[in-house]
Amino acid sequence: MKIGIIGTGNVGATLARKLAACGHQVKIANSRGPQSIQHLASEIGAKAVTKEEVVSDVDVVIISIPFANYPDLKQTLSKAPEKTVVIDTSNYYPARDGAIKEVDDGKPESVWVSEQIGRPVIKAWNAALAATLADKGGPAESSTRIALPVAGGNIYAERIAQDLVEDTGFIALAAGTLEDSWRQQPGTPAYCTELTLPKLRLALLLADKARAPQNRDALIAKFMASDSQLTHEQIVALNRAMTA
């Protein structure tokens, strides 16, 4: 499959590495231009291109950039073929992104993203830490394989996203429509808690829309107040404890 990835931070670079290793044709782009990511592209077997080139002649575009920057991509994505599947991996953090009233008032993050870029999106890979994506994938037959939610409104596009999630080493769980995707946003029991499939199903059901932003902000405050850098395991444990 031909895949374009916009954003080469921890998540975007990890997805590019894993998908290229599975045999997909991967192009990567960022805001600084192809020369800034040429070394990464060569290392993982991808092609470094401009943002305009990354959406050309691809089956899928994966976007992994800061949440507040999505409106900047509307013109770029307008040039992508209509059939191209667009996957949103982002999460909203007001302290980083600035307050966005519509999202603060309850609009699901990926619904807002879709409106900003003028394209329907599938929400995937957002509910895992970068280290989880890099190191915690497992074989399909493993009973302890971590499951990740995938939400969207188009069966064809959602199926493609699910297949790609599986390629990166995780079980893909259909998590409803894009309107339902708030259930996998920060502060919910499904977010960055490394759950197996049965537990993820339950976590999505137990999500509380009113509590989620409060949990999100409380977790950030907890992380910031820590005297030492928390380990990956400690972060996952805190997410589980404070969103249960």
Describe this structure in words.
The protein has about 240 residues and is of the alpha/beta class. It has one domain (about 65-244): NAD(P)-binding Rossmann-like Domain (Rossmann fold). About 40% of the residues lie in helices and about 10% in strands. The chain contains 12 helices and 8 strands. It has a 6-stranded parallel β-sheet. Helix 2 links the parallel strand 2 (about 25-30) and strand 3 (about 45-50). Helix 11 packs antiparallel against helix 12. The longest helix has 15 residues, at about 210-225. The radius of gyration is 17 Å and the shape is globular. The mean pLDDT is about 95.
Fill in the keyword field for this structure.
8 strands, alpha/beta, Rossmann fold, 12 helices, two-stranded parallel sheet, six-stranded parallel β-sheet, single chain, 244 residues
Concise synopsis of the structure shown:
This protein is of the alpha/beta class and 244 residues long. Helices cover 41% and strands 12% of the residues.
What low-confidence regions span 5 or more consecutive residues with pLDDT below 50? Answer: none
Biggest sheet features: 6 strands, parallel
Number of domains: 1
- How would you name the oligomeric state of the polypeptide chains in this document? single chain
Count the strands?
8
Q: Taking all residues together, what is the mean pLDDT? A: 96
- In the CATH hierarchy, the architecture is 3-Layer(aba) Sandwich
Q: What is the C-level CATH assignment?
A: Alpha Beta
CATH fold assignment: Rossmann fold
